[in-house]
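Issue 218. Parser rejects a valid record. Input:
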Amino acid sequence: MRVYHFLSTKYALSDLKNRRLKIATFDDLNDPFELWLAKQENRETRKSYRKWKDEMSLTYGLLCFSKSWRNPLLWSNYADRHKGICLGFEASDEIGKNVEYIEKRKPLNFPPDSDLVTRTLFTKYKGWSYEQEWRVYVRLEKRNLKSPHHYFRGFDKDLRLKEVILGPLCDISKPVLHKVVCRYSPHPEIVKARLAFKSFRIVKDQRGFSL
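Output the parser choked on:
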């Protein structure tokens, strides 16, 4: 499956150089309802839910991808307002899963069984559906909220770099980019993006990368 990860230019170049992606924690995410989708109809439920969410935050991190790079909101929100870079990967279906988008919050019994936990990890409010998100979860070892560490997942056979897409306003020079991607074999495709002329989409600039 081809999936896309959006970054500022600074972090994209670092990830390309080190062949890895930074694993996000739930504290990093911009949706305050992450893991907070169940109805909380009384104080006891809220208390149990909050404890469970804290435990999950200490245990799991995630990588967030989109199934498309053409939505301008993705570039605005996650790639430094179109000045960043999108990395396209061929990812194994076995390491990730599509996010389900729902309209209403659902009950959550405690302790939740494994199926219910999985559904919660891959569920978001439908307002986020434009992201077409595909997620990979990673178990974090010995995470401490008082002394946080950065976690990374390396590129491998299950996450193979295939494309490097420069945002419409990305001003990185060709020599700088070439110095990083020339180390890859085979080389990923380099795409320069632009704003579409007849729709609200981001499309490939057929003139190519000429900086």
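Fixed in the parser; the record now loads. The CA atoms of residues 72 and 200 lie 7 Å apart.
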